[in-house]
Amino acid sequence: MYSEILSGALLGVCAYMVGVEVDIAPGLPSFSLVGSLSGEVRESRERVSVALKNARIPVPCARITVNLSPADRRKDGTAFDLPIAVGVLQSMEYVPPEASKGILFLGELGLNGEIRRVKGVLPIVREAAANGIRECIVPLENAGEGAVVPGVKVRGASHIEQVLSFLRGGADPNILPPAQTELSRLSDEGEEGEDFSQIHGQETAKRAAEIAAAGFHHLLMTGPPGSGKTMIARRIPSILPPLTLEESLEVTGVYSVAGKLGEKPLITKRPFQDPHHTVSQAAFFGGGSSPMPGALSLSHRGVLFLDELPEFPRGILDGMRQPLEERKVRVSRVNGSVSYPAEFVLVCAMNPCPCGYYPDVNRCRCTTPQVKRYLGRVSGPVLDRIDLCVELRPVGLDHLQEGEKGESSAAIRKRVMEARRRQEQRFAGSRYRFNADISAADMETYCPLGKAERALMERLYDSLRLSARGYHRLLKVARTIADLAGERQIGEEHLLEAAGYRPLLDYWI
Q1: Fold classification of 2-181 (topology level)
Q2: pTM
């Protein structure tokens, strides 16, 4: 007997529908799976057979053929165990055909019939909703994750017997749909203990962090050890605008695909990733035999912090150039390529020399060639993609002993949110969200300059020896500074402040 069950699969962070076709016919006993499958999927036949046996449902001695369509797309993971098992049960006439109609199934089976957690439930449920499917049965541990998608009834099951009972008309309380998450009540609260009021001095660096948060610009901080670079970087998420619902679903989808979602069904705080400089390229950009998101994509809509920037391999630093421009990561393999989103604020920190104390001649023992060689590890093209560059000095004893707290993250965030609202009004109806998103083609539309400002930019272009990219980035930073000041037009003072944050390439090269 033939049956077809609905399921889904992942392609990067996107999903597509999969039809699980099962046919049981007379012949020599066999259990064949076809449809461009990975080893994990092919192993489903053993898991399904043993799980059904231990659920007191013996698999018949017949020719069982399972096809996962479309057959030309590679299928990975263990989420097809449950739909294959349901298809086999339906072909064995344990389940009436109409019972599974319009229901999507996902889940890994244990040998005892237990339904276990799988990756990527959220994007698959979202795709199911887009295709008009209104009911899904997923592992109980994934039920909360799937339930955040509006308009879909998500049922969580912990054992194959529960699914069988439900499909045969039983009323098992363990498979009732979980309560839909109240998305409107989700909030983005700052991390406890991470506040800008704890940072003494370093007003220039804190101002640069505020500009970076308001316009989603990239930031580089240089300074000796202990000057506060890491402290500032870790507090930037506390002043970023809160995630919108759509952004929250995007970020949650990436973490769901990576298997890093944890217990919370929805991520409501902007991510913060700080990979070590020994990170591999696959862990940084994404990849593997079955490509998974890396640190760049796990930072999507949040902050990617690279401490000790020159210590990162040259291949990783130069490999960031394309993702920083395109806001996505492409992972290519022999059997195809996938794209992962990578729209983040890049925050970097580095020492000015190998020992960390340049230009303090009393403490620095590095020679000029050593300093040049150390700084040269960060290439000019990478620096040109950084919007803000600030140098931190050691904090004076008077700042540490005065006892007065600096401005709080809440106060800074209030200004950031005001600037964000101005950007929302400016970009209404466009594809942009922040000033950093503006493309070169739309600079005249969103960053117009008056006569005096144009003359100033001509002088800055020559004196700073800007590239075309650097010119546009300076304008975008000036636009954010004007937004923070509540000004409709970019003024000369905004341009001068933005120019003060441009990295001096002569200092590096």
Answers
A1: Ribosomal Protein S5; domain 2 (3.30.230)
A2: 0.88
